[in-house]
Design brief:
Blueprint lengths: L3 H12 L3 H11 L6 H16 L7 H20 L4 H7 L10 H20 L3 H12 L4 H8 L3 H19 L20
Helix pairs in contact: 2-3, 3-4, 6-9, 7-9, 8-9
Amino acid sequence: MIDADAIDDWFCREVLPLEPALTHYIRRNWRVAEDVFDLLHDVYALALGSAQGSLPDYTRGYVFTIARNLLAQRSRRARIVSLELVADLENVAPDVDIFSIDRGMIARDDLRRVQAGIDNLPPRCREVVRLRKVEGLTTREAADRLGVGIDAIEQQLTKGMRALADFMLGGSGRIGRASDAPRQRRSK
């Protein structure tokens, strides 16, 4: 057990100078701006609590690993699938490479799962998701390329991303109709 003065000194000397970079990292990887300072506070609390056993050798990697794990935990709890978040979490601290083989295998598995989810989409929806999310085209550019209206692109993208999120969360990934009730013929 380390005395409180040594922990306070370590925190002020090594952790607090990381605040601008840590705040930027949390802002970039968390969509709710109001949560940034709460998350920063939680990272500090976890770092202080863990440091009571022993001080880390490499503070920057230690603190950013805590931040990455906290964001991943909050993401799982919120049941949000964000491809940007997963991609950005890989860039936490490039000089800290603790589990590179595991991360590589997990990333490949995730990529295969995303590809399977995209392949599961209907052709038009698949093409819209590919153009907007993979190639990065704007809605207007995708509409021009496919020869359809902007509304059609937005509707297909919404349906496709919902189906992809469902697939990534273990569902079927099928696109449901607006109304599953049987249609009745009108009498003339």
